[in-house]
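Structure in, sequence out. Go:
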């Protein structure tokens, strides 16, 4: 007989993380399916999560993450209450894309399109994780459903993770697994919207495997409600001569921690990563990115931008490791932060770890306020102060967005950024 969901979702005051985790798995056990994640993998993930515990601020990988909410939020899912307090608000469709919707961590057939790539019965992707991706173990243990895609040929797919409050606090563990066959071509849009509520947790895990010669353009678009709390894990493995392009757009939530690892295994594999984080008020967005060059002649590039307003805190940590076997590889990092006022904080940490002499590498990071000379120039040409500042902020963010190859996606991202920045001039120009 399972525990009462409402009782189990509210841990006793002062309960340790370990005890809360054990209570959560007991409550969730009747809801979990071995087709989503094999039972052996769930058990191993729980053991890893218990051994790892919660990260400490002195841990360099987690120094800038705001994880205080983990002391009180539920860690596991509960049975459906049938009492969602809001209807799911879905974003506008993208022309030509097949849409899949996960609602509070479960596939929603009524809101989804028929999708030939959806292959629930195919072999699950359960990657090896480290403490950098430690909350991926929670997803492995607690995921109730999965969007599992196997792509052959060409496809345009949009996966929407939408959250809406339930009657009681809970944790949702949305899961997406993507396998690209040899020479497949996928444009993948992954959107995060809505909120489970201020006392709940969203913990997403995404795995992507690109086989030889495949090409994947991947947009991860986070526009959660201001009270949402997100933990997010992305792991990508790229084989020989495959290309993977990742665009990160982070505009929402109260607290977000994203752990991203991209591994270039095959000779000639390429990864291009661009990202923009924008936050105001007292919000925190922390992104930790690891890129592993393992194969010969692999290349990676990163263009990451952060814009902090009010008392927001943004962090980009990016480490690239080139192994001794990855001869002839190349990597470039460009990290920049823009502070809107004295209360905001941005932390940028580009790092290179190189174990071979046959490599080309560069990195750089700068943080500062708007260029006063450029601002004065625009004001002297008759622009008002708000418009001038908006144009400079737009140019700063556009420096990363212009690396999105797919024209439709680039325009959608530009429109979202213009709205987030309150840039009327940019919005009108994009119409």
């Amino acid at each position: 007989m399972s525990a009462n969901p409402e009782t189990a979702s509210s841990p006793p005051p002062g309960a340790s993380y370990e005890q809360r985790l054990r209570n959560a798995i007991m409550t969730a056990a009747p809801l979990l399916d071995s087709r989503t994640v094999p039972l052996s993998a769930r058990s191993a993930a729980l053991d890893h999560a218990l051994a790892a515990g919660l990260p400490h601020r002195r841990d360099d990988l987690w120094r800038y993450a705001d994880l205080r909410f983990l002391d009180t939020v539920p860690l596991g899912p509960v049975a459906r209450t049938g009492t969602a307090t809001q209807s799911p608000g879905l974003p506008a469709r993208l022309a030509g894309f097949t849409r899949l919707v996960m609602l509070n961590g479960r596939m929603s057939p009524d809101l989804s399109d028929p999708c030939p790539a959806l292959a629930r019965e195919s072999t699950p992707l359960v990657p090896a994780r480290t403490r950098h991706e430690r909350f991926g173990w929670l997803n492995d243990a607690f995921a109730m459903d999965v969007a599992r895609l196997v792509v052959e040929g060409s496809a345009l797919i949009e996966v929407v993770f939408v959250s809406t409050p339930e009657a009681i606090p809970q944790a949702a563990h949305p899961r997406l697994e993507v396998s690209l066959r040899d020479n497949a071509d996928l444009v993948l849009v992954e959107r995060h919207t809505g909120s489970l509520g201020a006392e709940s947790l969203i913990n997403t895990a995404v795995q992507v495997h690109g086989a030889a010669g495949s090409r994947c353009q991947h947009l991860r678009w986070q526009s959660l409600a201001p009270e949402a709390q997100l933990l997010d894990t992305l792991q990508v493995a790229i084989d020989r001569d495959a290309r993977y392009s990742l665009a990160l757009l982070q505009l929402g939530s109260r607290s977000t921690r994203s752990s991203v690892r991209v591994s270039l295994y095959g000779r000639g594999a390429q990864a291009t990563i661009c990202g923009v984080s924008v936050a105001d008020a007292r919000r925190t967005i922390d992104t930790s990115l690891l890129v592993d060059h393992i194969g010969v002649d692999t290349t990676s590039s990163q263009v990451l931008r952060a814009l902090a307003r009010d008392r927001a805190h943004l962090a980009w940590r990016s480490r690239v490791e080139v192994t001794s076997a990855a001869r002839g590889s190349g990597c470039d990092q460009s990290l920049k932060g823009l502070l809107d006022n004295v209360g905001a904080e941005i932390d940028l940490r580009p790092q290179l770890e190189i174990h071979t002499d046959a490599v080309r590498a560069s990195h750089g990071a700068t943080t500062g306020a708007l260029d006063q000379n450029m601002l004065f120039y625009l004001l002297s040409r008759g622009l008002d102060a708000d418009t001038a500042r908006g144009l400079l902020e737009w140019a700063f963010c556009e420096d990363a967005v212009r690396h999105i190859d797919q024209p439709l996606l680039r325009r959608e991202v530009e429109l979202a950024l213009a709205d987030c920045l309150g840039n009327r001039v940019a919005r009108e120009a994009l119409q």
